[in-house]
Amino acid sequence: MKLCPYCDKPIESQWRFCHHCNKPLISDLEHRRSNNRPDSAYFTEYTSYEGYDYESEEHFDVNVLEDKNIDEKISQVDQKINQSSYGDNIGDLYLEKAGLYYKKRDLSKSLKELELALETFDHENDQEKIAITHNEIGLLKEEMGYFDNSIYHFDIAINILKNIEDNIKLIQVYNNIGNAYYQLKDIENSYSFYQKAIKLAEEENMRYEEIKSSSNIVEVLFVLQDFERIKKILKKNYEFFSQHNDIFGLINTYSKYGKLNFYLGESYYEKAYEYLNKALNLVKKVESQISVYSKSRMQWEIFLFMGKIDILWNRLQKAENYLLKSLESIRTFEIEEDNIKESIILEALGNLYEMQNEHSKAIEYYNLSSDIYYKFGEDFKTAELKRKIARIYQNSLHNNMEAIDFYENALEVFEKLEYFKEMAQIYDSLGDLYIDRGLTEIALNNFEQAKFYYQEIKDNYHTELVDGKIKSLIQ
Question: Which domain holds residue 429?
Answer without folding.
Answer: 393-474
